[in-house]
Design a protein that fits this description.
Blueprint: H1 2-11, H2 14-32, H3 38-49, H4 54-79, H5 88-99, H6 103-127, H7 129-136, H8 141-152, H9 154-157, H10 163-178, E1 180-181, E2 188-189, H11 203-221, H12 242-245, H13 249-263, H14 270-284, H15 296-312, H16 314-319, H17 326-337, H18 346-349, H19 351-379, H20 387-404, H21 409-427, H22 433-455, H23 467-493
Antiparallel strand pairs: 1-2
Length: 494
């Protein structure tokens, strides 16, 4: 009890509270701007932490981390331009709601779901941290390969009723992700002797092109001919009524559980969690026919999942000293600078620090809700800008976002080409989200497959001898076959 009181006292200082609010606000802004994301946000504020006391420095980093994960959903809803990769799933349901004039309600859904998912992960972080970290150690490359395959089943859920086109788009994403260095041998592949392609095709420029550029190109072609006029769109934040949550609390809990579990696995990340949760929501929802048309179930699932990653991702980082992704790697470096040595002894010898981080995460998520609710009117105010001016501004911001990731003009060309390809795909009714899914999951699937084959001396069938992997393979098969089984059962019943 004394440790809890001591941790609460350290958090309740003006400097720490200011760091939480400032960090969360900066994180939301970074998330809103396409092409930036959590890593850039953390590296921007990292120099400021060097001269700060330990707890305020941690609070600032946590605020940027959580705020940036949430912020990407705002532009995904308002402009169909995901600010971060994990927000691509949010755009699938959020933007159709904005087109119906319900941008404020969509932001209400994602803000509430994000906050609850984040708070849920905090409980997981404190109550199940050491146990979850120990369980994650049982994941070998074989289990990661099985998890990656299961995540690929999301393509079936976002293919708009045409699985063949969705798989084709997913295969295109996988192909794009293979360009560059071979992760095992280091050989160059699919570069066609181009020096620019030797570093691979960046995920962020492709996302900016497929969503932002293609959306703006489509708007140029159909300007003033579809969707409600900007002046009729509601701006701000509208809290979903309590009656609307009936039947969706299970979706919220399921998404939070998925995000907490995936976040605790090193090397996965929020984008994987969001797409898995979206696919599961589409399978289990009572409103599955409304998916792709602005269904809140999809928003609740993916937003609770990607924000639940934030707390659980700290579990392997703090308890094992293993950063799960570039975001937690930057945070790990910041913790080391502050004199904190992550590892198995941290939970045993520095429990007061763990409780301080626990309280920080709670306040960060509450601050995120307040900033989202109070600042939503500013974020959605762009809907009232005349459409030609809005298109120009978005193209400028998207171009800066594509360029700013690596400072490479080639990325701007990648985004432009991806935008043209996105227009062609949309014209022929190919879904573009599977391309992002393929690019996000391909590195994990390929690397874990090849490492697994090395461990089993090239025997793929040995993968099925691993209990966790076998269970994931079975779940994947059932997920893919479930529509056929359901139709067969209905036919037999008739």
């Amino acid at each position: 009890m004394d440790l809890i009181v001591s941790a609460a006292t350290q958090i309740a200082t003006p400097l720490t509270l200011l760091a939480i609010v400032a960090g969360t606000l900066v994180g939301v802004i970074v998330g809103v701007l396409p092409g930036l994301g959590s890593v850039i946000g953390l590296t921007m504020v990292l120099p400021f932490t060097f001269s700060m006391p330990q707890i305020p420095a941690i609070a600032l980093m946590l605020g940027v981390y959580c705020g940036s994960v949430y912020g990407g959903s705002i532009t995904a809803i308002v402009l169909n331009t995901p600010g971060t990769p994990q927000s691509a799933a949010t755009a699938l349901e959020g933007f159709p709601m904005a087109q119906r004039g319900e941008a404020d309600l969509a932001i209400g859904w994602v803000t509430t779901s994000s906050t609850i998912g984040g708070l849920f992960s905090v409980l997981v972080f404190v109550l199940a941290g050491p146990s979850l970290a120990a369980f994650s150690l049982q994941f070998t490359p074989i289990e990661y390969f099985a998890l990656g395959l299961f995540a690929m089943t999301c393509i079936a859920g976002v293919s708009s009723g045409n699985l063949l086109k969705g798989l084709t788009a997913g295969a295109l994403g996988v192909l794009l992700a293979t360009v560059g260095n071979d992760p095992v041998t280091g050989d160059l592949r699919f570069t066609f002797d181009s020096f620019q392609l030797s570093a691979g095709i960046g995920l962020i420029p492709v996302i900016v092109g497929l969503f932002a550029f293609s959306e703006m190109f489509m708007r140029v072609l159909t300007i003033d001919r579809d969707g409600p006029p900007p002046e009729q769109m509601r701006v701000g934040f509208r809290m979903p009524p309590l009656a609307a949550w009936k039947g969706r609390l299970g979706m919220l809990l399921r998404g939070s559980l998925i995000g907490s579990f995936v976040g605790a696995l090193p090397g996965t990340g929020a984008a994987t969690a969001a797409f898995i949760a979206y696919s599961e929501a589409r399978r289990a929802s009572k409103h599955k026919d409304n998916f792709g048309k602005g269904e809140p179930d999809g928003l609740v699932a993916c937003e609770s999942a990607n924000n639940a990653v934030t707390g659980s991702a700290l579990v392997p980082t703090l308890s094992l000293g293993i950063p799960g992704d570039p975001v937690t790697a930057v945070m790990l470096g910041a913790l080391v600078v502050q004199g904190i040595a992550p590892g198995p002894q941290l939970f045993a010898n520095h429990l007061d620090l763990i409780y301080a981080i626990f309280f920080c995460l709670i306040i960060v998520n509450l601050a995120m809700f307040a900033i989202g609710a109070l600042g939503a009117s500013l974020f959605t105010r762009v809907l009232r800008i005349p459409e030609p001016i809005l298109i120009g501004l978005i193209l400028i911001i998207a171009t800066v976002g594509a360029y700013g990731v690596n400072g490479n003009p080639f990325d701007v060309w990648v985004a432009f080409i991806a935008g043209v390809v996105g227009v062609v795909l949309r014209h022929f009714r190919f879904p573009v989200a599977p391309i992002v899914i393929g690019m996000v999951l391909q590195p994990t699937i390929e690397m874990s497959l090849r490492q697994g084959l090395i461990l089993t001396h090239g025997n793929f069938w040995a993968f099925f001898e691993r209990p966790i992997a076998a269970i994931l393979f079975v779940i994947t098969a059932l997920t893919l076959c479930w529509p056929l089984l359901r139709k067969g059962y209905a036919r037999v019943k008739r």
